[in-house]
């Protein structure tokens, strides 16, 4: 005959007692509660950390492909994924800045030149914001990292608005803007999870 405790089976009651003792032990040795139960944030293998981040991202497939493009993501924890995501942001900003400069040097239409100049300014700011985010991550200042990651995405949106009247949805600059916006969101999701 199975023993019961307030309508629960003995194994269930034992699990509750063990959980209580584990929490008590953590309290006594000052281990934060979050460190025990944020299993996904403290993932032991690469797919757990990448999966955790990408499940919180607007574009799951883009997130998986972007983070998966770096072989280091296979063994990365959230902090390392933060550096990977910011490296991807920086690469996008650099490539897009070079593309905008080339387009600007070839463009004859004054309206398009103004729009491209606005984009160039936005991407210069995005480069500074990305560097500030990397510095914040290095200093474990995740709040600042999240703010700077959002600012990078704002630069992409500002450029997109500037060229929107001249470029179609498949225009290379607009595609680069969308990619930067999604990459900056990955960095933001990581920063939020690190806080």
UniProtKB/TrEMBL annotation:
Residues 45-190 form the Pectinesterase inhibitor domain. Residues 1-33 form the signal peptide. The keyword Zinc-finger does not apply. Keywords: Disulfide bond, Signal. InterPro entries: Invertase/methylesterase_inhib, Pectinesterase_inhib_dom, PMEI_plant. One of its GO terms (molecular function) is pectinesterase inhibitor activity. It comes from the Eukaryota. The keyword Signal applies. PANTHER family: OS01G0111000 PROTEIN, OS02G0537100 PROTEIN. Belongs to the PMEI family. This is Pectinesterase inhibitor domain-containing protein. It comes from Aristolochia fimbriata.
């Amino acid at each position: 005959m199975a023993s019961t405790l307030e309508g629960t089976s003995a194994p269930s009651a034992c699990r509750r007692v063990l959980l209580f003792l584990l929490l008590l032990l953590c309290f006594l040795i000052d281990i934060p509660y979050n460190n025990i139960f944020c299993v996904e944030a403290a993932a032991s293998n690469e797919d757990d950390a990448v999966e955790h981040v990408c499940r919180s991202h607007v574009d799951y497939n883009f997130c998986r492909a972007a983070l998966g493009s770096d072989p280091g993501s296979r063994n990365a924890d959230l902090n390392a994924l933060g550096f990977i995501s910011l490296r991807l942001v920086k690469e996008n900003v650099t490539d897009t800045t070079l593309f905008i400069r080339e387009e600007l040097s070839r463009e004859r239409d004054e309206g398009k030149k103004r729009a491209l100049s606005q984009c160039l300014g936005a991407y210069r700011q995005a480069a500074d914001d990305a560097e500030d985010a990397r510095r914040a991550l290095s200093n474990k200042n995740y709040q600042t990292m999240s703010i700077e990651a959002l600012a990078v995405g704002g630069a992409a949106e500002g450029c997109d608005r500037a060229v929107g009247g001249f470029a179609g949805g498949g225009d290379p600059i607009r595609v680069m803007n969308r990619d930067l916006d999604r990459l900056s969101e990955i960095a933001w999701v990581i920063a939020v999870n690190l806080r």
